[in-house]
Amino acid sequence: MKKLVILTSAVAIMLSFVACGGGSKKTSASDEGWVSIFDGKTFEGWRGYNRADVPARWIVEDGAIRFKGSGGGEAQEGDGGDLIYDKKLKNFELEFEWKVAKGANSGVFILAQEVEGEPIYISSPEYQILDNENHPDARLGKNGNRMSASLYDMIPAKPQNAKPFGQWNKAKILCFKGTVVHYQNDEPVVEYHLWTQQWKDMLDASKFNKEDWPLAYDLLMNCGGPNKEGYIGFQDHGDDVWFRNIKVKILD
C-alpha cells in the first residue's frame, strides 16, 4: 500500500501539472473542469448497453439512479440490462456515490465496448460494488479481490473501507494513459496499468484467462479498442443498487 500511495501521489502531481498548462496557470475550486453527467432528474445522456433506450428497471429516485432488482443475483431479461453513459471517454476522472441493498452486487465499468450478444464486462475492467458482509462474492476469488472497490477478480481493494449496506460510499476512478486508480471513501485502494506485462499477468490468472474465455481475454488485452477509449457503465446484477452525484473530469 505504501507503493500505491507513492504512485498515486506522483500521478496526481503529473495531472495537476497538465491541468495547469505546465504550471503557468492555476485553477480555482470553481474551475476544476468537473462536469456532472447525471442531472438527478432524468436519464439524459444515458442509455442501455447495446440498446437505444433505458431499461425499465433503471429509474431515477430521490436524485439518484436506482436499479430495481429482483434480488435474484442475475441480470434481468427484457426490462433489465446494464446502463451506459452515451459518450466514449479516454483519459478522465470519474466520481460518484453508491449504496446497495442487503446482499447486493453490482459494478462500475470503464473503457467498455459494445459487443453484440455479450455482457459489458467482457471488454471492461470492473470497479466492484458489493455488500461485503452479506454477499458470497466477498469470500470468493483470491484475497478479497471480489470485494467492494476491487478490480474485480484481479486486485483486492486495500484498505477495505466500504460502509455497510444502506449507507452511501464515495468512489473515484482515475484513468490516465493506462494508469487506473480506484478510490473508496477518499482513500486510494487499487492501482494498475493497462496494456502492460502486469495487466497480461493478471488476466492470465483471472477468470478471463485465454484458455477459459478467449474472447474476453482478447478484448481485455486490448482494453479500450484501437482508440483506447470506451463507455462508463453501471451493472445490472439483479440486485438493488443506487448511484448519485456522478461527474467526470476530462484529462486530455
Overall helicity: 10-25%
Q: How many strands?
A: 13
Strand content bin: 25-35%
In this structure, how is the largest beta sheet organized?
8 strands, antiparallel
Oligomer: single chain
Structural class: alpha+beta
- CATH architecture annotation: Sandwich
Radius of gyration: 17 Å
Mean pLDDT reading:
89
Reconstruct the topology from this structure:
Layout lengths: L1 H18 L14 E3 L9 E3 L9 E4 L2 E4 L15 E3 L6 E9 L4 E8 L13 E5 L38 E8 L2 E6 L2 E7 L3 H8 L9 H8 L9 E4 L6 E10 L2
Antiparallel strand pairs: 1-13, 2-5, 3-4, 4-13, 5-12, 6-9, 6-13, 7-8, 7-12, 9-10, 10-11
Describe the structure.
With 252 residues, this protein is an alpha+beta fold. It has one domain: Exo-inulinase, domain 1 (Jelly Rolls). It has 3 helices and 13 strands; from the N terminus they run αβββββββββββααββ. The protein has helices at residues 2-19, 197-204, 214-221; strands at residues 34-36, 46-48, 58-61, 64-67, 83-85, 92-100, 105-112, 126-130, 169-176, 179-184, 187-193, 231-234, 241-250. The strands form 2 sheets. Strands 1, 3, 4, 6, 9, 10, 11 and 13 form an 8-stranded antiparallel sheet that branches. Strands 2-5-12-7-8 form a 5-stranded antiparallel sheet, with no helix packed on it.
